[in-house]
């Protein structure tokens, strides 16, 4: 790596705003492993999980460490929806985005014995009996999962406000809620129920990807195959506290870029059903501004935000 004027001088802490195994925990563990293996960071690194509010508790912690480049967090779209919905006063511009890593699409899962045989049956249920379908969702109201579910419900002719949703800090917990029979449907990131998909204890009626996914999802149709234009899913990135200087930002941008160019990271993308959407610098800021506007418009259209 090219020399910069700043290097870490003490232990690095990477925050994940979900519990172990959750949607922010998985990239944190993968990234830390590669940074260590490649020798891209000269000091020890620790993962700290601070679940709650879809990552909001972790970002609030980060905001209390302005100027400290030894403390970072995994970023996700919930940082935008939390602010839009008034869940948090913290804006993404109050922190220092360092990179976007990938986007992961959503799986709509049910138990094997569910009467929801396929996506068409699910559409009928959402349209005819919206309130009668208990749903498990991670990790926050107003996030990409919730928006995708709401768009599909609206397409089906159902009432978005009537959705019966239980929200969990981790998609693994949402999966367990489906397995227990307390929810008939789970709307979670595709990587989350892979063990259950492989074991046959859940099945997927549709994915929100632009094309079919591989592996355990090879036989799962996209929503587009059912004439529903739903291509959606949360992205994950890395964000730092406010007031980082140019040298600190430069170090992390270079280290993160190097980590994501390794064969190990490419293997992780494939294994986790993640799609590479890496961005940094001005391209990242433009992406976040676009996402913020798009999310606000989607939330408003779905009645989750008041009309401006």
TrEMBL record:
Organism (species): Humitalea rosea
Gene3D superfamilies: Bordetella uptake gene, domain 1, Periplasmic binding protein-like II
Coiled-coil stretches noted in the UniProt entry, renumbered to this chain: none
Protein name as it appears in the record: Putative tricarboxylic transport membrane protein
Pfam family, one: TctC
PANTHER family the UniProt entry points to: TRICARBOXYLATE-BINDING PROTEIN (PTHR42928), UPF0065 PROTEIN YFLP (PTHR42928:SF3)
Family statement: Belongs to the UPF0065 (bug) family.
Transmembrane domains' residue ranges: none
């Amino acid at each position: 790596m090219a020399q910069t004027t700043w290097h870490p001088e003490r232990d690095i802490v990477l925050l994940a705003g979900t519990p172990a195994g959750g949607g922010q925990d998985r990239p944190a563990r993968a990234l830390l492993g590669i940074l260590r293996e490649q020798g891209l960071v000269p000091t020890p690194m620790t993962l700290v999980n601070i679940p709650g509010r879809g990552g909001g508790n972790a970002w609030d912690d980060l905001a209390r460490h302005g100027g400290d480049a030894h403390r970072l967090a995994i970023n996700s779209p919930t940082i935008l929806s939390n602010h839009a919905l008034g869940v948090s006063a913290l804006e993404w511009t109050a922190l220092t985005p360092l990179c976007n890593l990938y986007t992961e699409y959503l799986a709509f899962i049910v138990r094997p014995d569910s009467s929801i045989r396929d996506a068409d049956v699910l559409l009928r249920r959402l349209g005819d009996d919206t309130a009668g379908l208990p749903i498990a969702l991670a990790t926050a109201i107003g996030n990409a999962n919730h928006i995708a579910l709401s768009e599909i419900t609206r397409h089906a002719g159902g009432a978005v406000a009537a959705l019966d949703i239980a929200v969990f800090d981790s998609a693994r917990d949402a999966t367990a809620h489906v397995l227990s029979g307390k929810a008939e449907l789970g709307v979670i990131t595709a990587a989350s129920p892979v063990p259950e998909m492989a074991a046959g204890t859940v099945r997927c009626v549709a994915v929100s990807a632009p094309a079919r996914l591989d592996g355990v999802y090879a036989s799962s149709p996209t929503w587009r195959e059912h004439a529903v234009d739903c291509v959606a899913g949360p992205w994950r990135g890395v964000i730092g506290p406010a007031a980082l200087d140019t040298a600190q930002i430069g170090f992390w941008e270079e280290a993160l870029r190097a980590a994501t160019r390794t064969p190990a990271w490419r293997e992780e993308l494939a294994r986790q059903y993640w799609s590479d959407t890496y961005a940094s610098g001005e391209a990242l800021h433009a992406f976040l501004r676009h996402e913020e506007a798009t999310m606000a418009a989607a939330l408003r259209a779905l009645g989750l935000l008041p009309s401006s």
